[in-house]
Amino acid sequence: MKITLLKSEDYSRSPWKNGGGIFTDIAGAWRADAAVKDWSSLLWRLASTPIVAPGPFSHMPGIDRLQMVVNGRGLVLKSPTQEFDEREPFTTVRFTGEMEVVTALEEGPVEVVNLMARRGAAEIDLIALRESGTRQLVAGTHLVYAARGDCRIRLGDEEFSISHENTLKAELTAASQLTLVAGMAVLGSIRLAA
């Protein structure tokens, strides 16, 4: 098990693929043989971003996306064939990067967390940890993001405090137990394809 604390002051910023806003990049991975870290070499990425005005999402062929509102409320994603309801914070929606999506903001600006992965390169999951309790984590990379205030977790036999907007990155070679001790957090899980 390798544990790394990712501090908010070290996060990088990058533009949305369509140029409509700015991501705060929390963590990510790109192909090792790639000359540059760009959308074509992306394996996975966890990022947060404000959505302050209605508009289209970036077209991202080959990318699977999970998204969750962490501040604000009233977000709805609309595509020609369906709606994704994120009106309530900490609700996860899943959609593909090929889908034409336009945002509707029913109650003003929101901040969201996105977990994206190259289809076939990784399996991803994004959930809110809101109540004390234990869950089993599989081998892979797990990111515990303190989206709303400080939180405390226990991973295996060790306890960790995570300050607001910081992230604990756990790279597990075997299954382990994660317990939310105090506060709340967002858990992003990535398992690379063999």
Automatic annotation (TrEMBL):
<dbReference type="Pfam" id="PF05962">
    <property type="entry name" value="HutD"/>
</dbReference>
<dbReference type="InterPro" id="IPR014710">
    <property type="entry name" value="RmlC-like_jellyroll"/>
</dbReference>
<protein>
    <recommendedName>
        <fullName>HutD family protein</fullName>
    </recommendedName>
</protein>
<dbReference type="InterPro" id="IPR010282">
    <property type="entry name" value="Uncharacterised_HutD/Ves"/>
</dbReference>
<dbReference type="InterPro" id="IPR011051">
    <property type="entry name" value="RmlC_Cupin_sf"/>
</dbReference>
